[in-house]
Write a structure and sequence with these properties.
about 230 residues; three-stranded antiparallel β-sheet; 10 strands; alpha/beta; seven-stranded mixed β-sheet; Rossmann fold
């Protein structure tokens, strides 16, 4: 269960957690042990990409490559980037896309390193830090005119347990629901729905749609999915 993080350097701890948990995360994804993904969120992002009609997609924070491989099976050309060497190595071994080992900072500094004129840029549960403006602006610059951003994240209303406060701030995921293989907790930055929308608009996108994935039995919200279209140049 996510809790408040007391870390003074959570951005660094995010990188450490991905490094330490790369093998466990790969197994959890490929063995389909993440319930929310199996029930709804995997199909939600796949449907959004297919509906936009993009033939060339950039997966920002591709991890071990699940989304890249799934889109490639539909005949979509995909480029994936991620800053964790252990995850990119696993993605490359499974093939399905053109993968780049790049941190978000490196991508933001030079988006053209991964190509340009993409029809869609996807951030699928991959924006965990507080400062995401530069990577979203880099995503916009990598898109062709009229290209779309598809951003899926944990639904802000999904966890309202004791002590929950609906306000932006750091939380911590301990991965306890996924087994003992996960060695290192991960900080992540919680945003309200309004804050997510503000980030998308500030990065140069016109918000076109907001979708919500729900648990099919309980009706509990699982994910928030935002679709934004790149604004024309002034």
């Amino acid at each position: 269960m996510p809790t408040e993080s007391g870390s003074h350097d959570p951005e660094r701890l995010i990188r450490i957690s991905w490094h330490d948990n790369a093998a466990a995360w790969t197994d959890a994804v490929r063995q389909r042990r993440i319930e929310s993904r199996v029930l709804a969120t995997d199909q939600a992002v796949l449907l959004a990409v297919r509906e936009c009609g993009a033939g060339h997609v950039l997966d920002i924070g591709c991890g071990e490559g699940w989304l890249c491989r799934s889109l490639a099976e539909s005949g979509i050309g995909v480029v994936g980037l991620d800053g964790t060497p252990e995850l990119i190595a696993r993605a490359q071994a499974a093939a399905g896309a053109d993968y780049h080992l790049l941190t978000y900072e490196e991508f933001a500094a030079d988006p053209a390193r991964v190509g340009k004129d993409f029809g869609a840029a996807v951030c699928n549960f991959s924006l965990l830090g507080r400062d995401i403006a530069l990577v979203l602006m880099a995503a916009a610059s990598s898109l062709r005119p009229g290209g779309v951003l598809i951003l899926q994240t944990v639904h802000p209303f999904g966890d309202t347990g004791p002590g929950f406060r609906y306000e932006d701030g750091w939380r911590t995921e301990d991965f306890s629901a996924l087994g003992s293989e996960f060695r290192t907790p991960m900080p992540w930055y919680f945003r309200t729905v309004g804050s997510w929308i503000a980030e998308v608009i500030a990065a140069g996108f016109e918000l076109r749609e907001c979708r919500e994935s729900l648990h099919p039995e309980t009706g509990r919200p699982l994910s928030l999915l935002l679709i934004g279209r790149k604004c024309p140049a002034p």
